[in-house]
Amino acid sequence: MTAPFGARLRAALDTRGPLCAGIDPHSALLAAWGLSNDVAGLERFAGTVVEALADQVAVLKPQSAFFERFGSRGIAVLERTIADARAAGALVVLDAKRGDIGSTVEAYAQAYLDPSAPLFADALTASPYLGYGSLEPLYATAQKHGAGVFVLAFTSNPEGAAVQRAVTADGTSVGAAILEGAARRNAGAEPLGPIGAVIGATVPDVPFDLAALNGPILAPGLGAQGATPGDLRALFGKALRDVVPAVSRELLRYGPDRAALREAAARGVEDCRTALGY
Question: How far is Cα 166 from Cα 175, in angstroms, rounded to an integer?
Answer without folding.
Answer: 8
